[in-house]
Design a protein that fits this description.
The structure holds two protein chains of two kinds.
Chain A: H1 3-8, H2 24-29, H3 34-58, H4 67-89, H5 91-97, H6 108-118, H7 123-153, E1 155-156, E2 159-160, H8 161-164, H9 179-206
Antiparallel strand pairs in A: 1-2
Helix pairs in contact in A: 3-4, 3-6, 3-7, 4-5, 4-6, 6-7, 7-9
Chain B: H1 2-48, H2 55-59, E1 62-70, E2 73-81, E3 90-98, E4 103-111, E5 116-123, H3 145-148, E6 159-160, E7 170-171, H4 178-200, H5 210-213, H6 218-235, H7 244-250
Parallel strand pairs in B: 6-7
Antiparallel strand pairs in B: 1-2, 2-3, 3-4, 4-5
């Protein structure tokens, strides 16, 4: 697998949320608006790159028996650092993501990539993989949150489209912003991805 | 056995490095976070005092800190004046109360008669689309629509319209989030009451000079004052804290 493929596989082919079904909790919890989804995606990407790089660098020194606790320590360190950074320098984002930042520690994408990729591959490849996966995660979050924000409030990234077009009286469905809307949206998008995959496989199989 | 010691020492070593680097990073960010928090509080205080003071006064107001005792925890409030020799013109306090799903913190600015000048919801964990609307700024507006409802209301008596239809100090409730609105009203009532009690202990000069407030419609104001006095008389013996709204509802 070359580096470009390694980089882009996380976007759609092996998208952590939509295909690998990892990190579903944050994908459900924070995707009430594009702004939140984007912020969470970027924070996770930063943690992912940091932890994957360090873990890949240290892979020879980490004994197999205790690799998981060590991974968790490294990840938790990065998450705490990101949390402090956001609080100190980007307070608005820190406020809106609040509780979910510390929860990146238990986001299975990060541990999953550490276990499945960074602990086996070279440093450069791990960084590329982490960046790709992070972007894939961000894409998935933005996709889900765009649907939810639009259906829930009629806005996209805070801009009320209907009002901007001069259409008055649009009321969003609040359910879409609440957890049920998250499940619904995620289920439909995951279903669509699978349907598309099966359809493609059938087409190529037929030829 | 040897293996266990080796593994634990590695784990200990890794955890030590992690803790050390975090401690260092914390020491870098701590002042920035504290500064930001103080600046935010200052900004919120200035925000709720808009209109009571002129633009230039607001940037260097004199705050005098007072303390209120809330079941053992000490909370702060501030009396505000524009110049060293001037009269205290405003009160600011940060009221806290449990909303639908967590603590709601609201900065409240009032004049010396506890009439609300402005409020600002600083912190909440309410449901997006419902209670969270308290902080939502509609597109094209510069502040949350919710805040405006509280202007000119008496902070001691402000109540959700569902609880007391006849009150002068009723506010609408956010659609689908009466609990949030009610929680904010009650926290304001409670803190205002405590601040008022505390004010009673303050020297005489701090009580507002009434001649300065009224000037416009004297008759209406006299009438309103008589009404308020009558109402205060009626409520004298009831405990004016969280129970007031229900009292109105039962009638």
């Amino acid at each position: 697998m070359n580096k470009l493929q390694n980089f882009t596989k996380g976007f759609f082919k092996e998208n952590p949320v939509l295909i690998l079904a990892l990190g579903l909790c944050p994908a459900l919890a924070v995707t009430t608006s594009i702004e939140n989804g984007l912020g969470m995606g970027m924070a996770t990407t930063a943690v992912l790159i940091g932890s994957s790089t360090i873990i890949s660098m240290l892979k020879k020194f980490i004994p197999g028996n205790i690799r998981i606790p060590i991974f968790i320590i490294i990840i938790a360190t990065f998450v705490t650092a990101i949390d402090l950074t956001l609080q100190a320098f980007i307070p608005s984002l820190s406020e809106s993501l609040g509780l979910f930042i510390p929860l990146i520690v238990v986001n299975c994408i990060i541990l999953g990539r550490a276990e499945a990729f960074a602990s086996k591959k070279s440093v450069l490849n791990s960084m590329i993989d982490a960046l790709g996966m992070g972007i894939g995660f961000t894409i998935a979050l933005v996709l889900i949150s765009a649907v939810r924000e639009f259906a829930g409030t009629g806005a996209l990234y805070g801009y009320p489209l209907f009002q901007l077009m001069g259409i008055e009286g649009f009321k969003g469905s609040i359910m879409m912003i609440l957890p049920p809307g998250g499940f619904l949206t995620m289920g439909l998008i995951l279903g669509f991805m699978q349907w598309n995959k099966i359809r493609k496989a059938k087409n190529t199989g037929g030829k | 056995m040897g293996n266990i010691i080796k593994l634990s020492s590695i784990l200990f070593f890794v955890a030590g490095i992690a803790a050390g680097s975090l401690a260092y990073y914390n020491s870098i960010t701590k002042p920035a976070i504290a500064k930001l928090k103080a600046a935010n509080e200052e900004k919120a205080r200035a925000y709720v005092l808009q209109g009571l003071f002129s633009e230039e006064q607001i940037s260097n107001l004199i705050y005098e800190e007072g303390e209120i005792d809330l079941d053992g925890t000490i909370e702060k409030f501030w009396r505000v004046k524009a110049t060293e020799s001037g009269q205290y013109k405003a009160l600011v306090f940060l009221s806290k109360g449990m909303g639908f799903s967590g603590l709601i913190e609201t900065m409240v600015g009032t004049d010396m008669n506890f009439k609300i000048n402005a409020i600002k919801v600083l912190k909440h964990t309410e449901t997006p689309g419902l209670g969270a609307e308290a902080q939502t700024i509609k597109y094209g507006e510069d502040k949350p629509f919710f805040e405006g409802w509280f202007t000119e209301k008496n902070s001691l008596k402000v109540v959700v319209v569902n609880d007391d239809l006849n009150s002068k100090d009723k506010v609408q409730s956010i659609t689908g989030a009466t609990i949030t609105t009610r929680a904010i009203c009650r926290s304001i009532n409670k803190y205002a009451e405590l601040v008022k009690k505390q004010m009673g202990n303050m020297p005489r000069q701090l009580v507002i000079d009434r001649s300065k407030i009224v000037a416009v419609d004297r008759e209406a104001i006299m009438k309103a004052r008589a009404e308020a006095a009558a109402k205060a008389e009626a409520e004298k013996d009831t405990v004016v804290t969280e129970d007031t709204p229900e009292g109105g509802k039962d009638e």
